Amino acid sequence: MSPMKLSNATLAALPEGVARPTYDRARLGAGIVHIGLGNFHRAHQAWYLHRLMQQGLAQDWAIIGAGVRPYDEAMRLRLAAQDYLTTLIALDPAGVSAEVVGAMIDYLPVVEGNGPLIARMAAPDIRIVALTVTEGGYYIDPATKGFDATHPDILHDAAHPETPRTAFGAMVAALALRRARGLGPFTGQSCDNLQGNGAILRQTVVSLARLSDPGLADWIAANASFPNSMVDCIVPATGPAELALAARLGIEDAAPVTHETFRQWVIEDDFCAGRPDWDRAGATFSADVHAYEAMKIRILNAGHQVIATPGELMSIETISGCMAHPKIHGLFRKLEIEEIVPHVRAVPGRTPEAYVDLIERRFSNPRILDTTRRVAFDGSARHTGFLHPILRAGLAAGTPIEGLALVEALWARMCAGTREDGSVILPNDPLWADLTARAAAAKADPQAWLAMPQIYGDLADQPRFAEAFARWLRLIWDRGTEAALDAYLAP
């Protein structure tokens, strides 16, 4: 049989075994605008809301999708053609299953100046504006970790607050309208992998508002809320293989999402205009989000960079493939236990060591075709956000940092732009041109790589790290990645 084109009209005719909405989507009311409708959002936040709706709850919290970049329009058109439904395909080592989720009911047109987005966020029924815009999307100065008021996008939004270019400028414009109309603010909810993501979102929104309207900035700071949260689910990119998998399951979906079966969402309960009861769908409300996110960011996110960097150099295409390589797997295990776990505290029900075991199993899932290239993307943000805080903690505490220095050296070698088989690594970082130039210079002078204050800050001045980094980088260039891994793993 030919696959069934996904739409409201065909939900009842989908193949047996495909779970689907049991609620009446025509009766849903909007409550959330979500900016950044990538795969992660649809497999994570939208799934939690869908699960509530399946229980007859949260019927007035449906999601309005949004984007602010021209490429977002292509996703809007794909989803609009199938009534904003998404097929989620769970990839468990024991088997594959599919579920259609329907928590999103609209997707705003993506236009210059973001007028439709501003108008919708200013409407009284919108009580939460959530974002998944990547770790590097919050206009943070890498050196100071403060707001980058010099970025061209920010300068544009400060000069043209009614026709902004960024998601944050649109939020500021909508909040200005709400204040003028006597409405309260919405909650700003970051769902990105950033430690203190709510505080960072607050910093960006309030700082941007202050550039054009200090009074508005004060009103936002006093009245809006920006809860911190920790999000976790491995969600690969969608390509031809994922489209074909959906078709084999009997569904013609232009934007299916594959994902692992593990999900976690820990949220600070700070919502100025109400919220869904996500805890009834498995989320955790906690006043100590930091402990959960520190465990996840330091063990999972940093661990991703630990294995993806040598994997890219050795032409290993997937994360599970990296874990199947005994030397990369050995690097992961030794570095996690000896260099990361000492700087992670337990959370209710889970020790850091048990979490390493969990992540080891998740990364090794052969059904999850998460590409090494995707995980290694934007290393300038991910190394500074995930690895360098652990490195600083290790230097301060006197714990081992040899593996962390090795990973930084592997990253410097990767940014030279070629793999060890001679193939070219295509640009994979917003700073790629500068990184490749630095990497070329570092082959002869390792200090040339560390002399990037926006990335390394004072780490370049720490002799224990700088000397280890230089030693590893020379070994990698002289004898290769495997030789460096052997040296690290030697008893």
UniProtKB/TrEMBL annotation:
Gene Ontology MF terms in the entry: oxidoreductase activity, acting on the CH-OH group of donors, NAD or NADP as acceptor
Protein name: Mannitol dehydrogenase
Organism in which the protein naturally occurs: Rhodobacter xanthinilyticus
Database matches in SUPFAM superfamilies: 6-phosphogluconate dehydrogenase C-terminal domain-like, NAD(P)-binding Rossmann-fold domains
Domain (Mannitol dehydrogenase N-terminal) ranges: 31-279
Keywords: Oxidoreductase
UniProt keyword annotation of Magnesium present: no
Domain Mannitol dehydrogenase C-terminal positions: 288-474
Domain of life: Bacteria
InterPro entries recorded: 6-PGluconate_DH-like_C_sf, 6PGD_dom2, Mannitol_DH, Mannitol_DH/Oxidoreductase, Mannitol_DH_C, Mannitol_DH_N, NAD(P)-bd_dom_sf
